Amino acid sequence: MTTITIPLPPARERIVLWLLALTQFTVIMDFMVMMPLAPQLMRAFAITPAAVSGAVSAYAWCAGLSGLLASMYIDRFDRKRLLLAMFALFTLSNLACAVAPNFHVLVLSRAFAGLTGGVLGSIIMAIIGDLIPVERRGAATGVVMTSFSLAAVAGVPTGVMLAAHYGWASPFYLLVLLSLLIWAGAWRVLPPLAGHLTRPVPLSEVLPNLIGLYRVGGHLKAFLLSGVNMMTGMLVIPFISPMLVENIGVLPVEITWVYLAGGVATLFSARMIGKWSDRAGAQRVYRYIALFSILPIMFMTHMPVIPLAAVMLFFPFFMMAVSGRNIPMQALMTTVPEPARRGAFLSSNSAIQQVGSGVGALAGGWMLHTDAAGHIAGYGLNGWIAAGLTLFSVLWVGQVGAAAKAVPVGERKVA
Fold this sequence. Notes:
Blueprint: H1 10-32, H2 38-45, H3 49-70, H4 79-98, H5 103-117, H6 120-131, H7 137-166, H8 170-189, H9 203-213, H10 217-234, H11 240-248, H12 255-280, H13 282-301, H14 308-324, H15 326-333, H16 342-366, E1 369-370, E2 376-377, H17 379-396
Antiparallel strand pairs: 1-2
Helix pairs in contact: 1-6, 1-7, 1-8, 3-5, 3-16, 4-5, 4-6, 4-8, 6-16, 7-8, 7-12, 7-15, 10-16, 10-17, 12-13, 12-14, 13-14, 13-15, 13-17
């Protein structure tokens, strides 16, 4: 079956990609900003690091559920209309976070954010799969993944600085304003995206089609890679700010400069990694970057007391490696399903990623405790587990390359 692509003029294609990147930026900032806000939330609500990780995992679990449910309907609608509808609800969820009067309401609001924002990433990747030819998807994914860098460079530091001066809720008000502006731009610029609607799928076929996604051996291999990849990062990332504040002595307001240093580096590395992935192949690039990521992961989780300047010099290597491996992986995922099932597959894949994030954040929080000196202990164990899972993913990524040719498990023939 040929890939469904909707050609756009180069100038408009670039605008669309950057609008998708900005949409993804708000989702990533919404997720990421909770992590450097952890010290302020711990003080404001008198909670532990495990409670903060619970709020992070609540978002991830609900995002996973949302992605799983979305796989039943995502290919039944024009992708532009679905993106705009879910983005509007996501904006409302951030308003709910901003006005939350206590931590319990905040957790519920984070769950709502997960339900609404969790499906946006899969819609964005499905749009890339529809618009961009396969030979340029790595570069296109690199542009959209620049959203991670933008969140680290501009979003999270600005949010942390606003929170330090105007309270923890101020970053969420900023997200509401930005989301409204981006929504208006997407409504005006995105073309209709209904080329995948070649045949209306009866409702009676929706659940069997969803089950069919999980009967394809290549799909299952891809899902396992996605889940493990996200789990490794979330064993470490949510606890960076509390560790830097409590163990290294970094001030909460100085976290801004740490994330700014990492974000500036990834702003340049994301697009280079995307182009590298197109040239050398997504599998190979994933292996190289994932293997390299073990070094900064281990240093992050075993960091001695060092000056702020040294933390800022190190953090770009951590950010480039841990975020960079997601670029070839995401490009690889767009090649796994057939076009008519791309949205459902990527939505299910997004769900698996969110479940992996939730498991990683929750398990990582369980393994941490505060010692008598007020330091966070147990972080090193998180690093060893993350390193082991990374090695597994490096070996497993070779199983995903043949996924596009896979057949349902129950239909394999014995040679």
